[in-house]
């Protein structure tokens, strides 16, 4: 016992379980006719949102109902105030996956307004429960006008059957406790871990996938939930299940990269799981997006994210700096120069099941400080909780490593304070406690 308590990571996890276990609500794991509802931002306009849901049943008239006042869905046919939007049907084509995806747009939304909505079948007049969301506060403002906001970030969060040490339930519970403070949530890859079962490594496991979708429904049905693909999100036909489930604002359904603007900040999501070398479709798109944004907003906030990091110090194959033949070297050589060329302020990633941050760094050289950065700051947030557990060993610190390196589960909070300063916090799951924090000024490089 003395040796067990002497290990701070094991002790922390024991305390976490004792503290949180009894406060987790009972959840029924099933995919009903209108289950797993997901909100996402769109590429069309700031006054629209995409609503997507999964069902095991074929719906004849998939539709969205919404209003600024609470309503009874069954009254839709006789109501003049309930608004409706048709949804399209997207069938899974992956062997072993039988659910159907439905997705539609809600447009012409008013700024900073609470909307109530439900999804279902207009033909049979069968509907989900009524959910709500709050629209963004920048609908009527110029695209580069900064309005303070907070978003949550994590990666590598998967479904665990039960309340084990690394269960995603702790992260979900804590996010639910603060979701009224959040503008959106971002999951930087490795979603559900539906490929770890021996029988599903290549085909994926629909039960695990659906159970994860149910587990995060309390968040995805009320906040935009943005994603990028990770290495555990590719099944038998590659990313078909991922791209049909998570309807991101890509230019094409088969693309896994996109960008969006939010309250004066430009976000770019790239895919570390697709071709990213120079002259590839993705590389050309990334540089064009960066170029166009910097042309229109030379000094605006620019934040990029992907599943795999450029800089990491955890003892993990991807982070082995001595392996010159590694795929990470190709990743860094292909893309890092774009971050420096176009002044990307912050890069957020996962893949390594740890939390760590870098100093401002380019080509392994520290450039500037957090007060006056001359290169991008990198943060790894692969701490959502998953069946693989957390890493707890580290390589020898590099010159660019910064502050706390942690094996604890939790999530990050990105706070855009104003046009010159942002704040980042790492929140451990125990009591939603802050265990690391930094302020970053906007640099020019």
Topology overview:
Elements: H1 2-6, H2 8-20, E1 35-41, E2 49-55, E3 62-67, E4 83-86, E5 88-91, E6 100-106, E7 114-121, E8 126-127, E9 131-134, E10 149-154, E11 157-158, H3 169-178, E12 184-187, E13 191-192, H4 206-215, H5 217-220, E14 225-227, H6 240-245, E15 258-262, E16 265-269, H7 281-296, E17 301-305, H8 327-341, E18 346-349, E19 355-358, E20 361-362, E21 365-366, E22 377-381, E23 401-406, E24 410-416, E25 421-428, E26 433-441
Parallel strand pairs: 10-12, 11-13, 12-14, 16-17, 17-18, 18-22
Antiparallel strand pairs: 1-2, 2-6, 3-4, 3-7, 5-6, 7-8, 7-9, 10-24, 15-16, 19-22, 19-23, 20-21, 24-25, 25-26
What attributes does this structure have?
single chain; alpha+beta; disordered N terminus; seven-stranded mixed β-sheet; 445 residues
Describe the fold and architecture.
It contains eight helices and 26 strands. The protein has 445 residues and is of the alpha+beta class. The chain starts with a helix and ends with a strand. The strands form six sheets. It has a seven-stranded mixed β-sheet, with helices on one face. Strands 14-12-10-24-25-26 form a six-stranded mixed β-sheet. Strands 3, 4, 7, 8 and 9 form a five-stranded antiparallel β-sheet that branches. It is globular. Strand 24 (410-416) and strand 25 (421-428) form a beta hairpin.
